Amino acid sequence: MIRRMAIILLSLAAAFVAAAEEYTDAAAHFRLTIPEGWEKSINPEQEIALLVISPRAEETLGFCMIQSSPLPGTDTLTQEEIDESLAGHFDKPFWEGALKEAGMKDAAIETTGEEKQNRRNTYFAVASYADGDRRIKLKVVSHFVPGRAQSLYCVAYAEGYAREDADFETVFDSFTPLDGGLVAGRNPRSPSATLGTMKGAFDPRVMRNTTAEGSRAVRTFVRARRSLTRRR
Predict the structure, then answer these.
(1) pLDDT, tens only, 174-196
(2) What tens digit of pLDDT does each residue of 194-205 get?
(3) CA distance to 35, 95, 149, 228, per residue, from 171 (Å)
């Protein structure tokens, strides 16, 4: 599966240098801007709606992934109810616990927080962990809207993260759930009854697995692209 993902991306890279793209995924309910020169793979794995790879990936490993999944029991809530019920729950201890549960070695949290984006709360963490003899740095931003949970991961070697930061922020800043978080509640329901469902939507095992799969796919893609370049 990882090799198939890399081959698809390589065929795109061989054909053209990608211009910046305003990308919309109606099935996964989001839109975003893919930075100039980045290659994309749509739904390369069951848990990944979109994988995009930096043109500098050979040096930096840089890539971003988007997950989008239904959130049963929250579609009757307003955005305000969701934001209020989650306020303060995605703190540093939460993210530390998530990284520990994910089994990421020698993990360290750099920063965490909540930010408003299009009148909705988002929840983020920047962290690093050991991967063999390298350190990997990632930023994850989670969005919760009525009926859906969405998480974005942007990943690079720690020493190469700064080179990717501007493009990473383009992805983060442009990401918008298609419903815009403005769906009104339709039936009376206690937000506290769905708090566990919303927090549970962020699965550390999924973070570990998708980050590892993305890293392997990018490395395979880089090796294949290097081989193709040498043959030309």
Answers:
(1) 999 987 433 444 444 554 545 55
(2) 555 555 556 656
(3) 7, 21, 17, 28
The whole-angstrom separation of Cα 76 and Cα 209 is 31
Is the CA virtual torsion 77, 101, 170, 49 positive or negative?
A: negative
Instruction: Give pLDDT tens digits for 84-100.
Output: 988 888 999 999 988 88
Distance CA 111, CA 97 (A): 14
d(CA 52, CA 174): 14
Q: Classify the C-alpha dihedral 66-68-74-75 as positive or negative.
A: positive
The 10 Å Cβ neighbour count of residue 141 is 21
AA identity, residue 139: K
Q: Class assignment of domain 2-231? A: alpha beta
H/E stretch holding 142 reads strand 134-145
